[in-house]
Amino acid sequence: MTLTPDRIPAAASQATTDSARDAATVPLASPREGSSQGLRFERAQWASAFRNVDLELTAVPLQATRGTIPAALNGTLYRNGPGRLERAGHWVHHPFDGDGMITALRFEGGGLGLSNRFVRTEGWQAEEGAGRYLYRGVFGTQKPGGPLANAFDLRLKNIANTHVVRLGDNLLALWEASSPHALDPDSLETRGITLLDGVLKPGEAFSAHPRFDPGHHGAPRMVSFGVKSGPRSTIRLMEFATDGPKAGQLLSERSDSFNGFAFLHDFAITPDWAIFLQNAIAFNPLPFALGLKGAAQCLRSKPGGQARFWLVPRDSGAHAGEAPRVLDAPEGFVFHHLNAYQEGEEVVVESIYYADFPSIDPETDYRTVDFDLIPAGLLERCRLNLAAGTVSSERLSERCCEFAMVNPSQQGLAARYAWMAVAEREAGNDPLQAFKKLDLRSGERRVWSAAPHGFVSEPLMVPRPGASAEDDGWLLAVVWNGERSGSDLVILDAASMAEVALVELPLAMPYGLHGSWSQA
Ligand code: CO
Predict the structure, then answer these.
(1) Residue 226 alpha carbon to ligand 1 centre in Å
(2) Phi and psi for 321 in degrees, rounded to 5?
(3) Is 386 exposed, middle or buried (0-12, 13-18, 19+ CB in 10 A)?
(4) Residue 410 is assigned to a structural domain of this protein
(5) Cα-to-centroid distance, 24 and ligand 1 (Å)
(6) In terms of C-beta density within 10 A (0-12 exposed, 13-18 middle, 19 or more buried), how is residue 137 classed?
(7) What is the pLDDT of residues 34-52, one digit of tens each?
(8) Is pLDDT of 116 > 90?
(9) CA 159 to CA 176: how far, in whole Å?
(10) Mind listing the pLDDT tens digit for each residue in 291-330?
(11) pLDDT of res. 359
């Protein structure tokens, strides 16, 4: 449906009422967190973002609530994330189990329009029709009916909720355990599951974390992978053209097998290498098969286990055709990398480390989670000396962070700046409430904060067209405004981190996962 501006207040107040009722059911042990150093956030405001999106909007024109939308910003910000967290009174066990919903924010000459659509996955359509959950979720959501209803139901519901990227004529909604869904980049209508012109086998895993090589070997490329895990794990590395008449075509691929189970959510690239970090974790499928836990809840840290870096030579690089290199990695768990680059004999990898695998107990409601009991994500730099086979590491910041990126033109190179989402306090785990620009050489930081009422998600750095300075551009992000129970688009100056514009969106969206910028 298209929402006309005069209907926005009614829809928004309806959403607020639903949320207020839901938030009130959350037991609040410490409703105002951070008493020792002033109020950082109210748990009810943080938890009020966990809700259903009930609207699908088409090209709704928007005005800046504060500031001015830059006229030089021309393109589309695509976001993906869970948009449906409840059916028939049954809530997902973890928001990562929510159905994927795509939001497109189109910028043109200072104007802005918003569209959003759920991905019409097979599971979403079936459950919409039935009005209840028919599938289990990987992160622990069970069908109603207890273990007996869930035991030996090993079907995966491809929820297409993790990332969204443009490849050729398609917008791809990605979910790492299975095939991408193709969408129309303009209308956001779902075209269906795509095997990328026969590149993928039906049901083959395809990562939700492609990396975009800005052109280290001529033309830009999308580099991605699929992983088949077991006692031995196989990584299939794939490189696709992104520009010109070949856009979307597979340019090269290779497959490599490694010892041990692998849970690989993300990876990093340099001109010569694709770098994977095999976390020291084990997978026990029994509780999943018996209907007691979701598949991702069966991952556990392996005591005494050794993490490893797996370096796969890229086909276009200096080590093309050579065997992969394997090096021992430091302790800790990594979901996301910031960047990687080469320096002489060294490959340098910057990643967000957790002291342990952060899992959610089957008995725990995620909205009541004790942040102090979950390890904080901390940015670290590992230097891999390929000649000596040694690895050293250093911490780059003590502040809890996630969703970090460099200027896209510096992907695979020694970038000077990083932008990321961080907690409001300097140390300890908390919800993400601020954005930080970090000078990776000097350690200098600049922070824009949405605390105490705002809660942030992944920021994207968009370079200004024709810019020469690495930090010349904007930082774009969607922020949950806990005070008005709605989502805001925030535009910052990427160099100074000053607010350029804030747009109150006519949608109230749960915290999103990943997104991308598509230049007009
Ligand atoms: Co991710």
Answers:
(1) 14
(2) 85, -15
(3) middle
(4) yes
(5) 30
(6) buried
(7) 544 568 999 999 999 999 9
(8) yes
(9) 10
(10) 777 777 777 777 778 999 999 999 999 999 999 999 999 9
(11) 66
Name the residue range of residue 505's domain: 18-216+269-287+310-519
Q: How far does the centroid of ligand 1 lie from the alpha carbon of residue 223, in Å? A: 15
The CA 467 to ligand 1 mean position distance, Å, reads 28
| Ligand 1 geometric centre to CA of 80 (Å) | 11
| Virtual torsion, Cα 284, 176, 411, 418, nearest 10 deg | -70
* 283 CA distance to ligand 1 middle (Å): 19
Instruction: Match 């785990």 to its residue by tokens.
Output: 429
Condensed to tens digits (0 to 9), the pLDDT of residues 59-111 reads 999 999 999 999 999 999 999 999 999 999 999 988 999 999 999 999 999 99
User: Can you give the pLDDT at residue 301?
Assistant: 75
Number of domains in the chain: 1
Q: Please report which helix (H) or strand (E) contains residue 116, including its range.
A: strand 111-118
In a domain? residue 454: yes
On whether the pTM is more than 0.85, the answer is yes
Distance (Å) from CA 121 to ligand 1 centroid: 20
Residue 211: CB atoms within 10 Å: 22
**pLDDT band, residue 32 (cuts 50/70/90):** low
Is residue 237 a part of any domain in this protein?
no
C-alpha triplet 129, 160, 367: angle, nearest 5°: 85
Compute, in angstroms, the gap from residue 78 CA to the centroid of ligand 1: 15
